[in-house]
Amino acid sequence: MRSLVLLGLVGFAAQLVDGSLGMAYGVTSTTLLLAIGTNPAAASATVHLAEIGTTLASGVSHWRFGNVDWKVVGKIGVPGAIGAFAGATFLSWLSTETAAPIMSLILLTLGCYILVRFTAYGLPKNNLGKPLRKRFLAPLGLFAGFIDSTGGGGWGPVGTPALLAGGRIVPRKVIGSIDTSEFLVAIAASIGFLVGLGSENIDFAWVAVLLAGGILAAPIAAWLVRHIPPRVLGSAVGGLIILTNVRTLLRSDWIDAPSGVQTVAYIVIALLWAAAIGYSVHVYRRDRAHESVEAIEAVAVTTPREDREDTASAPTG
Asked: How confident is the model at residue 303 (pLDDT cuts 50, 70, 90)?
């Protein structure tokens, strides 16, 4: 019973992060399942079965809050489903241990770009409104879907930074579209796992508890992403990408850093991440204050002088 409650809390927290930042549900949930001894294929299958419900709830919530670009969902979701099915089918004999550090380096570079770009300059404006081409979204979806199945998570960490780096869609619609299209990925991956593994290695009680926690968190996450300023959201996503992939690299066979070194690295990254978010919040508030002053000045300029004098001389109280 205790483990089920813990799984429910993990499902809630993972979906809250995933729904507001566009990533980390699979990574968080799969990590816990592996920690208690579940084999990788069964862990990934359990998470993807739960994600059928959580991604549906998340997609509906994001749609209600206007966070979804349906053209992007169609162009990236279908190739993503194909990649996810392929990854799930071949997970039993295909290892991603060698590819994981290389992928983490690429994602770490994207994460650094996003963190610096949004923290220092805010929302990219030059490309906003320009359509994302299918020749970019289709390969991205295929690759992200494959990694998501074989790694127990990866749709968000691969798809979200790639779309954010392009600067053609506002961050909240990037996250909403990635979360919504993940529904197709979760269905395809689950079918692939059921074909490859059967159902005997999957604990459906765990699936139900993860699903319940995620469904409760989905509308809260969609509301948060609607109201978080893009600059702050970009800094938050960038820091999460950096922290996640530095962790992967430090634990890989390439580096295999001692626990003390890992702890110091995490603390340094967390401090820099907090400083970046704090700076983004400060700049956002400053810009809002300037906009308010400019709005008042604009009203004063457009208001006839006699009306301003009448207002100023009108008795108060």
From this structure: low
